[in-house]
Amino acid sequence: MKKESVEDLEVNLTGEEPVSEGGEIKPKWYKRIRKGITTSSTDKRETPEGLWSKCPECNYILTSAELKENLYVCPKCNYHHRIGSEEYYDFLFDGEEYIELFDNIQSKDFLNFTDLKNYQKRLDEIHSKTNLKDSMRIATGKVNGEGIVIACMDFEFIGGSLGSVMGEKFSRAVDYCIENKLPFLVISKSGGARMMESAFSLMQLAKTSGKLSQLSDAKLPFISLLTDPTFGGISASFGMLGDLNIAEPGALIGFAGPRVIKETIKKDLPEGFQRSEFLLEHGFLDFIVDRKKLKDQLSQLIILFRN
Amino acid sequence: MPEYPNRQFLDFEQPIKVLYEEIEKLKQTAEKSKIDMSDSIQKLQDAIIDKRREITEHLTPWQRVQLSRHPDRPYTLKYIDNIFTDFVELHGDRNVKDDKAMVGGFAQLNGETVMVIGQQKGNNTKMRQLRNFGMANPEGYRKALRLMRLAEKFNKPVITLVDTPGAFPGLEAEERGQGEAIARNIYEMIRLKVPIIVVIIGEGASGGAFGIGVGDRTLMMENTWYTVISPESCSSILWRSWDKKEVAAEQLRLTATDMKGFGLVDEIVNEPLGGAHWSYTEAADILKTFLEKNIKELKSIDPQTRVNNRIEKYGKMGFWEELIVDSTEEQ
Ligand SMILES: [Zn+2]
Fold this sequence. Notes:
By secondary structure, chain A is an alpha/beta fold. Chain A contains ten helices and ten strands. Chain A starts with 25 loop residues before the first helix and ends with a helix.
């Protein structure tokens, strides 16, 4: 039996830059893409044009522009790179046009939580380094002419962790869907709960479920798209509660992180464990969708739900 | 509860152990010498009570965590024995198996039928393994949901007793959808038409606890903890060391007093001096009065209002900052 390599997902939840232990690691790779192509012009000046990117799976080399053109999917091995809300919104919404909603809500350190760094200080630093206010953004626009609200997580923001802001934005997004009779897509990418918000973060599981219950009563479709990686509080709440649960190929999805499971059972994990294909096989996904087909598949589903 | 010498003592309970040992010595001396030592013994017994009070007054968050895991602490079935009558345990999720880490069934509370559900830990090595240390698999959560639906069908209130170090992080648990099982329970509990009272009786660890933890009222016993991660795991992830569990316990604000202060739980259920392990019957009697009061209050509310209130209650939980957006200088 081939064993699955174990990624330490929890490290992303600390909010620190992951430390490389020799060789390419995924979060860094992802950051390079953002800086090279998609962020503001000030960032671009710091990075040379025509940056080359290497696929962490198969080592295939192509330019960042080509990678973007290919929706951040490796043309050789179909590896789906970890991308953020901006990238998803750009290729999903018609003409890259969308309205961002509730972007005036941001996290604050209510508990005065201090681990190796104070939470507020951590937040301030991320706020000054990125345009992100928290780990989830909400936007509305059209997908092949069909109106939709899309909530999307940013792994870059403390590992896409679920805290009060995600819960509140999610709730308001559901209200917006109900008011405007729109379907709801949530793109998940998260290491789990925001530990610095302690029990408040746990309570978001019930808060979001309550809103989903209202969305369900309004008979509006809720599609949950799980991407690499989706763990903990997300898979133990709305991530698994879609009218349809779908996933990108090869995404790591689970409740407990692979490292924790490996330490518990004291055995190597079988190859493919907790990958999208594994979840599909065990009955927890409706289907797996390639990123390049996602947009068309979405609009097709919206029409199927409606007609 | 176990009597000395079968009683177990935590590090900060050692002074009490010393008092017990002194009593034991006096008793032996009294027996040998036929001298009446009952006055001295009584003094030591009073000293034990004083010590229990003293300990209770100065507990750190980490010590509360330790008390919640006290090897002599009463578990779910113990409370069921002492609070309810006519308990009929119901087994199985009707799908995979019967999860021994989760128990439940119909019982009577003062002549009224309720559904009681809770995680169950074992009190010796063999039973601890059988109960999987109170860590349920998906089947446990699905059994719990089956019982809750049964309660809903026959219009009986649900009482859940939470005591778990977490949902089991195993290979099969993942194969059978641990995340989905917990998610489904949370979703169904938020809209269940009958009253739900949740009591944290020991460890309230994260999703594993919350999988039976959504309700109209959440009560926390005095020496329990409830948050999103165990202090040990939090220490290992955020401090990158297993040695910061005490600090993590403080930072997480996981005690009953903290949680009540935040409005995340509704009431604190006091425990016998020094902790519930000092008297199972007293602990159960206190909890019983809380349950009776809350069931009565919740039954007087109509089902739809109850569900709406529940959704609204959780909807308010969280903290954030709303920036004032100047629409003229946007983008
Ligand atoms: Zn590749």
